[in-house]
Amino acid sequence: MHADTVAEDEEKWLAEGIAGVQQNAYYMHRALDSNNLKDALKFSAQMLSELRTSRLSPHKYYELYMRAFDELRKLEMFFREETTRGNCSVVDLYELVQHAGNVLPRLYLLCTVGSVYIKSKEAPAKDVLKDLVEMSRGIQHPLRGLFLRSYLSQISRDKLPDIGSEYEGDADSVNDAIEFVLQNFIEMNKLWVRMQHQGPQRDKEKREKERSELRDLVGKNLHVLSQIEGVDLEMYKETVLPRILEQVVNCKDELAQFYLMDCIIQVFPDEYHLQTLETLLSAFPQLQPGVDIKTVLSQLMDRLSNYAASSPEVLPEFLQVEAFAKFSSAIGKVIEAQPDMPAVSAITLYVSLLTFTLRVHPDRLDYVDQVLGACVKKLSGKEKLQDSRATKQIVALLSAPLEKYSNIVTALELSNYPKVMDHLDNSTTKVMAVVIIQSIMKNTTCVSTSDKVEALFELIKGLIKDMDGAQDDDVDEEDFKEEQNSVARLIHMLYNEDQEEMLKIICTVQKHILRGGPKRLPFTVPSLVFLALKLVRRLQGQDGDVVGEDVPTTPKKIFQILNQTIEALYLVPCPELSLRLYLQCAEAANDCDLEPVAYEFFTQAFILYEEEIADSKAQVTAIHLIIGTLQRMNIFGVENRDTLTHKATGYSAKLLKKPDQCRAVYACSHLFWVEDQDGVKDGERVLLCLKRALRIANAAQQMANAARGSSGSISLFIEILNKYLYFFEKGNPQITSSAIQGLIELITTEMQGENATSDPSAEAFFASTMRYIQFQKQKGGSMGEKYETIKAS
């Protein structure tokens, strides 16, 4: 309620002030129209007296000031016309306005006439400006003084005795112009700073907001300075910058210091900043602790790094002035001067310094590592960062080298890179690890030495093992899968032409991923296995029995590593995946002519099948994988092959469902007849498998009949018929045309029986088989003769 009342009062006071300005302006205009100078000065002084109020907020005072300002422009035009026509001497007019009763109207009128005085060139501009800036000291009320000096700045900006200006005087006049603007700036800043002490403590926040709205009045002076032609690098370095910084540091006001430092950076050229870096940076540690130094320093570094990027020819200047060393030193001093500076602020400074370094000195890895080292020093002795803003900045800090170099190998050379990562909490460590992997995948970076792989896996340890204190229960299942799949993809990016080094890489990866725990191994072990098998293929044919201290890289050695790795996966337990990997290894060992190794892998696969795979569907898949792999093996002697095939056929016949049994048993027939292998063509055992499959199919039919009162599908018989045809064509003497004919008749009888159920897919399958037989008969030649006796009807 109190705030509403104050606002209403302010509106009323403003309305009264505007009314006073308008009324006096009206009489002033009448006097101007009648060329009555005396009355014009009288009413203009009364109009300007409205600006003496202390009751308005800066915002409302500005409205009132603008009304008076508009009228003063008209008054100035009148003065110019009067002096031009010779009705009045500008010198007399300058003296005359000084007789105004109150000091504030007097000074506004003096500035207005002063503008005309300078324009008339009857006196040197520097003398008039010096007089005006000195006399303005007469107003020490912060708000009134600020607006008066703003008016002085406004009317004088195009009348400074600058080089090339029509008001340029002697050789030193440019110094006078600079001195005038500097003096006005210093006085305005003092008034602006004093505003915070006007009024009760409880309104301090409101006053700070009001002060912030007036900051541009002070900042315009710096803009005017930057536009003066005479302010060359030497003048800026020796006079302008030291004077401005002296005022900034001495005012000891957080708002003023932050704004003015920002102003300096924005309005003066990048080249000047580069050449006066030491002077500019020396001011930062002297600023108040509450000043947001990180933002200002970051803007300075960003500006200079953009300057370097846009003009490569200026890079030698950066080296000449040792820009990196100066920035690094300044940031260190700022952090030292503010022991309570939040971690996020310090890290933000280092992010900007690193960005600057990567743009200006991309070839200096030592500089990059130095920045990371300084960040580690700042964070040392602290707990892991919990502040999300700080961790976000750390991620930005660590991502910058990856983006710049597009190569993780370069980042791995930075000794402080992992030390910075150690300060991240577990979840952010994972985020950063994913960023690193994404960088590798995006740039298809090949990591080619075991040392680099060791360093890389240390960086991404958040993904490959449980971190201390990590709660896995909180992890989203989909996120976890995506993280582990990214690690699996990463493993395939590790490669070295040198086989010894490649083996070291594999051992390094194995060491890390086996610490991953049961949840991770199913994702990461397969990638490691296939990485190792790639090396095995490269080594194919090498002797596996070399002995001595320095045993070279051999397939046998790699298979030992693979056995240990898959065993760890088997203990998870993850039997189906382990079985597949054992079979892959067995096939690779077969190609390397390592019979004992291949036999061992098959043994492990069968043990897994017996002891761990209980689900009937998984058993069916597993037995078909075993049969398929065994069929491709050509290394086993008679005894070992018989043992394994016997096991496979035995397990096939023990499957839970009869149709599954039947299909697995007829698949086993291929184990006894392999086209591209001499000696593995046992027609009798093929026939035994097919006959056994027929018996099982028949039993399945009977079971279906007993359970449902109708015979089941005859598709199993048709599948077996197709196997008969396959081996018949391959020349198995045990598979005769009469046996095939008998099977065709059996199927036909079953399909036409009373209890037969219609099965369109089986009927189509049989019809297709019959068409195939007919096609082979019509083909002619030896194959046609073979099929001649078979009736396909």
Automatic annotation (TrEMBL):
The superkingdom listed in its UniProt entry is Eukaryota
Which keywords fit this entry according to its UniProt record?
A: Cytoplasm, Endosome, Golgi apparatus, Membrane, Protein transport, Transport
Q: Is the keyword Cytoplasm assigned to this protein?
A: yes
Tell me where the transmembrane regions lie: none
> Has the keyword Transferase been applied to this entry?
no
Q: Which Gene3D superfamilies match?
A: Vacuolar protein sorting-associated protein 35, helical subcomplex Vps35-C
* SUPFAM superfamilies from the UniProt entry: ARM repeat
Q: Where in the cell is it found?
A: Cytoplasm; Endosome membrane; Golgi apparatus, trans-Golgi network membrane; Prevacuolar compartment membrane
Q: Tell me what topology the record assigns in the membrane.
A: Peripheral membrane protein
Q: Which Gene Ontology cellular component terms are annotated?
A: cytosol; endosome membrane; Golgi apparatus; late endosome; retromer, cargo-selective complex
One matching Pfam family: Vps35
| GO terms of biological process kind | intracellular protein transport; retrograde transport, endosome to Golgi
Checking InterPro entries in the record gives: ARM-type_fold, Vps35, Vps35_C
Family assignment? Answer: Belongs to the VPS35 family.
Described purpose of this protein according to its UniProt entry: Plays a role in vesicular protein sorting.
What is the protein name for this chain? Vacuolar protein sorting-associated protein 35
